[in-house]
Amino acid sequence: MNLNTDTTDYRCGFVAIVGRPNVGKSTLMNHLIGQKISITSKKAQTTRHKVTGIYTDNTAQLVFVDTPGYQTYHRNALNDRLNLNVTETVHGVDVVVFVIEALRFTDADRAVLEQMPKNVPVVFVVNKLDKAKDREVLAEFIANAEKEYDFAATEVVSAKHGLRITQLIELLKPMLPHSEPMYPEDMVTDKSSRFLAMEIVREKLFRYLGEELPYAMNVEVEQFEEDAETGMYSVYIAVLVDRDNQKAIVIGKGGERLKKISTEARMDMEKLFDTKVFLKVWVKVKSGWADDIRFLNELGM
Ligand SMILES: Nc1nc2c(ncn2[C@@H]2O[C@H](COP(=O)(O)OP(=O)(O)OP(=O)(O)O)[C@@H](O)[C@H]2O)c(=O)[nH]1
């Protein structure tokens, strides 16, 4: 791409994607930037870290910050930290994208809206358009939902099916300040490979553990090395759980589950990093960690 960034017309700014768990924020961001960097799962509350995705074209650069789902139950140190993260993220951005599911506007959605700063435009994005077959019902739903907040604009999309994503980008552009791009044009994230490797393993854990997955679980990169000669990566990742029986669940019968998780994670990493990857994943027991603020700090959360 040849960027014509010396004109004063170029726009660049920060966009926060917010919404209650499971409305499709991560899926939306993946489509917005055209690459899978934020993890998605059928289960709620999978995004624990702020992930930055960057979209660049000839007229604008949109820097997306993905926020963890807003959760009002299960209060512990970890969730307090998550909620703090949402509030911190929406301050200091140029536009907020508030995502809901088509035909569902719940109290949890309202709770997220209540955190919006008054001086930042909020774009209302109705996701899962594919689930709203009756267009008249959808129009009525949107008209009612628009009464809940003074939105700057409204857009309907299907993140999963990649519908109307371009329209959303075009809608957001004029809301950003005139500025040169902040990041190089070929950059899609400012997260390190180390972080991305961890996110990939977390995604596989959520995918393969289903309902058995305890929320009190985290993933830690113990070692991440690139061979200077071959370019091959060696990645050592620990999965931290609360109890021995949870460790057994993650490992699975005869080690089958952990093997599947590791193999798929390695394949995803090889695609993303465009090199061969040696990956070792193991499970460690760490009791009570979800309530240990100092430990959260050590994890960089
Ligand atoms: N039918 C349909 N499903 C979707 C759409 N977008 C996302 N989903 C599904 O909704 C579920 C949740 O998507 P995520 O992107 O993980 O949601 P999230 O808001 O990031 O969730 P948290 O990380 O829990 O905050 C996944 O199963 C997605 O495949 C869509 O446009 N249509």
UniProtKB/TrEMBL annotation:
Residues 157-159 are annotated as: G5. The keyword Nucleus does not apply. Residues 19-26 are annotated as: G1. Its main location: cytoplasm. InterPro entries: G_ERA_dom, GTP-bd, GTPase_Era-like, KH_dom-like_a/b, KH_dom_type_2, KH_sf_prok-type, P-loop_NTPase, Small_GTP-bd. It is a peripheral membrane protein. Residues 66-69 are annotated as: G3. Residues 209-287 form the KH type-2 domain. An essential GTPase that binds both GDP and GTP, with rapid nucleotide exchange. Plays a role in 16S rRNA processing and 30S ribosomal subunit biogenesis and possibly also in cell cycle regulation and energy metabolism. Monomer. Belongs to the TRAFAC class TrmE-Era-EngA-EngB-Septin-like GTPase superfamily. Era GTPase family. This is GTPase Era.
